[in-house]
Amino acid sequence: MNRKCVLRYLLTAIFLVLAAGCAESGDEKAEPQRDVALLQLGKHEVIDQVIKGTIDRLNEIYHENINIKIYNANFDMSTLDMQAKQMVASEPDVLVSVTTPATQALMGANRGTLPMVFTFVSDPSKVGYTHSDVPKNVTGISDQVNYSGTIKLIEMLLPGVKNIGYLVTRSESNAVSIQKAFEQHAHQRGLTLHTHLITRPSDVRVAAELIAPKVECFLFGGDNTIASKINVLINVAEGHGLPVFACDQKSVEQGALAAYSVDYLEMGHRTGEIVGLVLSGSRPETLEVEQKVAKKLVINKRAAKKLMIKFSNELESLADWVVE
């Protein structure tokens, strides 16, 4: 961990101690109620983990002095835009967005007016962050996909693999960006990504069935629509004797073969801490966007047994989490 990271976490720790002390103090002056509004694109296991971590940490800091209102668009883009406008109109102390589409909708509605923290955004450039441009009144956390590690993992477990099936949701710019990066990494290794664009969750089964005869496995990453139907993708893949590789632990727990993952519960905890810093008076744009790199290797022995794939002893020893 570099000196900048150490200093950042030290300052956060000091803030948490002070905030918790104030919340628990018996002073006559009552602590003010903080209002936080949180926007999520829809529900799936990873989003749930991030939100749980965020809420748990905020409740630890503020106890009964925090009010968190959650808006869920259920993967409907019109609803997402409408809810973003409703959140801004309600004027909470801090806005929180979970996923890239939710962040884009909320930034469009807010336009820098209210303090905002985003999380679970893999490519910050898709929400306006570049080396030369930092949006006003916004900060957050980015989860970085382990592209090269994932491709090498596929090659290790499927010797001779040449064709990888990939579904991506056309409306999720973040997911499209990840697909393009995977395509480049696959090409560098002499592999072909067979991509099929989808529009809605109900498209997953048909798209997977179309690709399955052409590939040796499936891969997906950073796509919330696919994640909400991961059971469907795995069901189709297993029907063709194909493994699914993912980029998050929860998908592996549900039946994918392997992934390099971020700890999304911990990511939620850190999101709550950043929201706490903003509530305590820090200006969001002065807080550097943090990056969590997918380093946690997760493997599923149950899925491997179904597909007659053998994990080496070395790989099992390197795994941070094994689904038995």
The computed structural class is alpha/beta
CATH architecture heading of the largest domain: 3-Layer(aba) Sandwich
How many helices in DSSP terms?
13
Instruction: Name the CATH class of the largest domain.
Output: Alpha Beta
Task: Give the C-alpha Rg.
Answer: 21 Å
The count of domains is 2
Strand order of the largest sheet: 7-6-8-9-10-12-13
The termini sit apart by: 32 Å
Low-confidence regions: none
> How are helices and strands ordered from N to C?
HEHEHEHEEHEHEHEHHEHEHEEHHE
Percent of residues in β-strands: 15-25%
Largest sheet, strands/sense/barrel? 7 strands, mixed
Percent range of helical residues? 40-55%
Question: Looking at the structure, what is the overall shape?
Answer: elongated
CATH superfamily caption of the largest domain: Response regulator
How many beta-strand elements? Answer: 13
Mean pLDDT: 92
CATH topology label of the largest domain: Rossmann fold
What does this structure look like?
The chain is an alpha/beta fold and 324 residues long. The protein folds into two domains: 3-144 and 263-293, Rossmann fold; 147-261 and 296-323, Rossmann fold. The protein contains 13 helices and 13 strands. The strands form two sheets. A seven-stranded mixed sheet has the order 7-6-8-9-10-12-13, with helices on both faces. A six-stranded parallel sheet has the order 2-1-3-4-5-11, with helices on both faces. The two termini are 32 Å apart.
